[in-house]
Predict the structure.
Amino acid sequence: MQNSTARIAILGSGNIGVSLAKGLVKAGFYAPADIILTRRNSAALAPLAEAGYGTSADNLAAVREADIVVLAVLPQQLNKVLDGIREGLDADRQLLISVISGVSCQDIRTQTSADVRVVRAMPNTAIGIGQSMTCIASDQDREEDLTLVEKLFDTVGTTVRINEELMTSATALCACGVAFFLRAIRAASQGGTEIGFHAPDALRMAAQTAKGAADLLLQLASHPEQEIDKVTSPKGCTIAGLNEMEHHGFSSALIKGIKLSADKAGRLYKDE
């Protein structure tokens, strides 16, 4: 086990927290017994307890046992959680990892009244299948901490290090973005049904087509327009469809939606 001497507490063990825990175990970073998962209703964690994970409804007790603390609660719950664990924090020993939208590293230090080390990570729900796009940032230039957090989240997808001021934007593009792309796939499948395919077949065809399109960019390091040019021919059916979508604001609507989500994400904590 790479981190057999360290324990990790994940406070707020919903989809993101549990998926991270499972990814760390699968990758051999941790044994289940080295991970403490907390949730207000700890009974919901019973299957994980049976699998050997530590589970609890007591955040303070979990933090006192941990070297790494992952904050995975809702923005509206954060201040109460931080107030509850403040006396258990050890700034010299512990690293805090926040996956909470709209909360800066300094916000956490201010609320805890402690000079704690904080790294922010913004995964998305594809973490559940090991395909998250996770953005990582901190306001402290601690290479060791950033590298560790990258290694942790690389077990459940891909990571990219960004400046902290862009973390709210990362929420809109990568976390909210999952829903945006799913809605596009859903719309494509509905179009498929309208032109003759049964709904389950249309959905499968649309989803696989979207996956292939994404892999063209990721595996070939290509640009979308370069790949689009390969599909469009003069007076062809592809360019006709693309132009019709653009006439109805397809690209503009997506861009505006991402911008609005970024604005909203930046106010989630402050508007609690």
